[in-house]
Amino acid sequence: MAATFEDLQNGFEYENCNRKGESLLEKYKIPIQHFDFDYVSKSRDANELEKMIEVLRSGQEGFYPDLMRCMEKKLSEIRPTSKCLRRSQKVLNRDDLKKEEIDSISADLQNWAKNVSRSSKELQQHKTDTVRCDVEVRQQSQQNEPLNLMKKKPQKISATDYQAWDRYDPDTELMKVDLQDAKLRQKAIETEKERRQVEHYSLNHNNLKELKQMSEAEANFYSQRELDKGREFFRSGDYEMALNSFTRSLTIKPNLISYNNRALTQLKLKNYQDALQDCHKALEIEPKNLKALLRKGSALEGLKMYEEALDCIDDVIRIDPNNTSAQELAERVRKFCRNVLQNTRMKIVEIQ
Amino acid sequence: MEHLAKPQIICHNQKSLDYAIHDVKWIPCSAKFVAAGGKSNGAGIVEIYSLSGEGIQKIDEFCKKDHFKCCTFDASSLRNRHLATGDFSGRLQVWDLEDTLIPVYKSTTHTAVINSIDGVAGQSSNCGAPEIVTGSRDGCVMVWDVRQKDIPVAKFTPLDGQAGRDCWCVAFGNSYNNEERVVAAGYDNGDVKLFDLKTMSVRWSKCLRNGVVNIQFDRKDIPMNKLVVTTLESKFYCFDVRTHHPSKGFAFTTEKAHASTVWQVKHLPQNREIFMTTGGSGSLCLWKYNYPLKRVENDSDGIPYGIIGELQQLQNSILSEQPITAFDWCVDKLGLAVCSSYDQSLRILITTKLNLC
Question: What InterPro entries does the annotation carry (chain B) (predicted)?
Answer without folding.
Answer: WD40/YVTN_repeat-like_dom_sf, WD40_repeat_dom_sf, WD40_rpt
